[in-house]
């Protein structure tokens, strides 16, 4: 079978460990979804991942702490104040967050993420995080998924025992969100400068996004030295403005994962997909999420009763996709004996 020579040349470059360009990444995303070229792209991404990570698959587990109408009202998010999906303020107690985080570790998760809405009080978040840190094994990575923050907060996150942060410049940031794009970029700079390992993601992908927009975020994650990169589809939540665009297919998500994996090369320590499905796990992804508590893609207060997967679900899926679930802590978020930051040096 003959492939488009231009696509073949780009893929040979990727297999040789060379960096592909933005234009080449766009070219890969433009291939027809029923073409042999797409299978070749996914095969190369799969090869790169299995060559770099072996057969190890990772489960990262996130505890959502609160559901509040969020004033940022991102046009895809179930928490957005303007969309009226959630009108009351619900918050897990400190004890509940601690117990869910510990249960995730006991079930075999490889990293624990704590998530809040953008306006959750930072002091309260730290108080909860410190309590979680005390019950987790010292070498279990703890990762913050919160609103934008600056150097002072970064210092405090390190002191509280975080090793990483999930932070993203969302697709159409500032247009589909009410957050100043410059603020998002400043937070990404802070994360990099303070040595928090960055979990980055091309998200939330909808049918309306162009290849150029996706490629921009793939390279942004690489440029900010992401420890892990991922691609995530947007779940159309009724009542949110972007609901009308619908959802990309699992196949399109797999294509985005594959091209992201090829763009980022071997600079990452894990390649994620969200939400977890088999096809992207055969197209370069080796890391997926378990979730409990609130979730911006779900209309249930506790996503573990809705869209969220358990650690066991994730492990089963990894095995189905030909991976062996990693035992113990992820290597994507190096644990320091003592927090080190530019402010304390
Ligand atoms: S995505 Fe984050 S910032 Fe945007 S509305 Fe939801 S919770 Fe708020």
UniProtKB/TrEMBL annotation:
Q: What is its EC number?
A: 2.8.1.6
Q: Does the keyword Nucleotide-binding apply?
A: no
Per the record's keyword annotation, is Oxidoreductase included, yes or no? no
Q: Where is the Elp3/MiaA/NifB-like radical SAM core domain?
A: 61-259
Gene Ontology terms for molecular function: biotin synthase activity
Q: Which UniProt keywords apply?
A: 4Fe-4S, Iron, Iron-sulfur, Metal-binding, S-adenosyl-L-methionine, Transferase
Q: Which SUPFAM superfamilies match?
A: Radical SAM enzymes
Write down the top EC class of this protein.
transferase
Tell me which domain of life the UniProt entry assigns to the organism this sequence originates from: Bacteria
Q: Which cofactor does it need?
A: [4Fe-4S] cluster
Q: What is this protein called?
A: Biotin synthase
Taxonomic source organism: Desulfofundulus luciae
């Amino acid at each position: 079978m003959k492939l488009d020579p231009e696509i073949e040349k780009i893929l040979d470059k990727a297999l040789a460990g060379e960096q592909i360009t933005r234009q080449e990444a766009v070219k890969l995303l433009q291939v027809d979804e029923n073409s042999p070229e797409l299978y070749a792209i996914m095969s190369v991404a799969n090869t790169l991942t299995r060559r770099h990570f072996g057969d190890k698959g990772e489960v990262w587990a996130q505890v959502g702490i609160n559901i509040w109408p969020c004033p940022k009202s991102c046009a895809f998010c179930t928490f957005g104040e303007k969309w009226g999906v959630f009108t009351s303020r619900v918050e897990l107690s400190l004890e509940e967050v601690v117990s869910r985080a510990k249960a995730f570790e006991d079930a075999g998760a490889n990293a624990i993420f704590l998530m809040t809405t953008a306006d959750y009080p930072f002091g309260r978040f730290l108080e909860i995080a410190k309590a979680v840190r005390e019950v987790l094994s010292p070498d279990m990575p703890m990762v913050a998924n919160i609103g934008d923050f600056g150097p002072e907060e970064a210092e405090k996150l390190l002191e509280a025992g975080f090793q990483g942060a999930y932070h993203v410049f969302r697709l159409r940031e500032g247009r589909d969100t009410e957050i100043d794009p410059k603020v998002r970029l400043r937070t990404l700079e802070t994360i990099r400068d303070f040595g928090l390992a960055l979990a980055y993601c091309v998200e939330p992908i909808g049918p309306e996004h162009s290849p150029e927009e996706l490629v921009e975020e793939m390279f942004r994650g690489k440029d900010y030295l992401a420890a892990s990169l991922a691609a995530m589809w947007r779940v159309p939540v009724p009542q949110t403005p972007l609901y009308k665009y619908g959802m990309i297919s699992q196949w399109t998500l797999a294509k985005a994962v594959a091209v992201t994996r090829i763009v980022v090369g071997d600079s990452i320590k894990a390649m994620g997909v969200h939400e977890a499905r088999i096809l992207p796990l055969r197209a370069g992804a080796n890391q997926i999420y378990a979730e409990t508590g609130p979730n911006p893609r779900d209309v249930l207060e506790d996503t573990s009763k809705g869209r969220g997967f358990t650690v066991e679900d994730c492990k089963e899926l990894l095995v189905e996709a030909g991976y062996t679930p990693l035992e113990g802590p992820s290597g994507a978020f190096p644990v320091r004996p003592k927090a080190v930051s530019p402010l304390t040096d």
